């Protein structure tokens, strides 16, 4: 009983210490704001700009702009999705794999896989240009 009486005066202090002032605010969500990727055979370009995915195809038959519906950082890069009742696209960026575009011999920081409605999967390069033999 003595021990219970000793704890009673401290109890309100313990409850105040657990209040909402000590709760951390949620961390802001990471976001990729600008990005460009390219692919060959068939040629395509994907740009991330202003919360939009811009897809351009070499033949011009599968060009569209879509609002970004989902974007998440992954352990190896990013996954970005856009869709509508007519088009859909998934862009997967792998940042730990350097990429050579095969035509210009440029080396890019990222390997990019794009899945586009009506076109299937395509692989290309994106991000920072690490080396450019044509610029030398």
List the helices and strands and how they pair.
Layout: H1 2-7, H2 11-17, E1 34-39, E2 44-49, E3 52-57, E4 64-67, E5 70-74, E6 77-83, E7 88-94, E8 99-100, E9 107-116, E10 120-131
Antiparallel strand pairs: 1-2, 1-10, 2-3, 3-4, 5-6, 6-7, 7-9, 8-9, 9-10
Number of structural domains: 1
**Could you list the spans in which at least 5 consecutive residues all have pLDDT below 50?**
none
Mean pLDDT over the residues: 82
Beta-strand share of residues: over 45%
SSE ordering: HHEEEEEEEEEE
End-to-end Cα distance: 85 Å
| Biggest sheet descriptor | 10 strands, antiparallel
How many strands in all? 10
| Class computed from helices, strands and strand pairing | mainly beta
Portion of residues in helices? under 10%
Shape: globular
**Cα Rg:** 25 Å
DSSP helical segment count: 2
